[in-house]
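REVIEWER CHECKLIST
Item 1: Sequence provided? yes
Item 2: Single chain? yes
Item 3: Sequence as submitted:
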Amino acid sequence: MADVETGRDDIQIETNEISEVVREIAIEVAGKRVDAAFGRVVNELRKTARVKGFRPGKVPANVVKQMYGEGLAEEIERQLVRETLADAVELAGVEPVVEPQIEAEVPSEGKAFRYKARIEIKPSIELPELSALSGERPRVEVGDDELLTELESLRERSVAWVEEDEEVLAENGHQVTIDFVGSIDGVEFEGGSAEGVDLELGSGRMIPGFEDELIGAKSGEERDLNVTFPEDYGNEELSGKAAVFKATVTAIKRKELPELDDDFAKDLGEEFETLDDVREKIREGLTSQRQHASDHALHKSLLDDLVTRTSFEVPPGMVERQLESQLQQFEQQMQGRVPETDLRARLAQMREEGWDDAKRRVQEGLLLEAVAKSVELEATEEEIDARLDEMAAGQGVDAKLMHDMANAQGWRPAVAAEVVDRKALDHLTEAANVTDVDPPEAD
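Item 4: Structure as written out by the authors:
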């Protein structure tokens, strides 16, 4: 596209369309403004300059210019760009989506200052007919067998351990209480001793062979457990080493599960009177989880179709920013949970492989924004407050605290954007051809 020139007395710009999402603005700042910037910066430097033979604040301007040389020009360049870029962008009629890239000449007194700004902008998106979109919504179903599985899980968590008679021999499923001291070549090693350890035999908690060596033991019996640490054991000093643990079994207990009846339900909390109350609570929870997953699957299928039907260029700077955000979030989640070297390697891999995923997220965001604009969707203050209440409940924090944090840290615009995105997804769902399908089988 041909260059577009415009300006005012102290700034002239020339805009060139590089691509659908990139504009290059050539900016010329009038010489008088450049001279003013030189004078202003030099006067500031004169206040602090210390030169032999001159009193503080009385150093001549030409001496200051010689003292600071290229540094002076760099500072003036920064000031002129900072002072004029926003005006230049406004004159060009564009809205940058990321920080502009600047390429500048060295400013000189008595001459116009020229620099270029590479601006990324949002693309113009032409939406397809939304009624032509199709999506699949998995049915939300909770079977009686799933309720029983959840009840059994609750039952397992309520297990009681009852001490066996002295003559009972330990076997898989028993919980043994042991004291032990570990040694290698007759020398005790750090971290190899403990007292009063409860261990369920067959659980695989200990290194291979440790639990097997306790099978058949009696309460009060002492045993030498001969084991070998795995080659990939976390402690290199122990990896692959043969060890002996002198163990004393102080108790053997069997597992007793409570009956699935109304008494069991009452033991779970005051909100339950009968086992049917527990079943209903479990059903509600599973239904809510499945509904959320069903909505997510439907929205993904609708966005898949929308992305396929819509062609537009994605600003690379937005993709880079999205990728950086994903990396920072992952780093915060994993910090301290994995070794630093492993974390850095994983982040490097994600940076290399994550561009397409980040691009897709930017595409979806831009499309939802276009849908919202097409039907003038907005977030009311009440809807923003309701979403903050929802966030507070989900995180288990006080609602007032969540609102105060949102106001203090400037979250409300982001929350408003999320509310609008939700509305846009709802609009897509209402407009599109949605088919209910069987849920995918669990792995």
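Item 5: Key structural point noted by reviewer: The longest strand covers residues 242-256.
Item 6: Recommendation: ____
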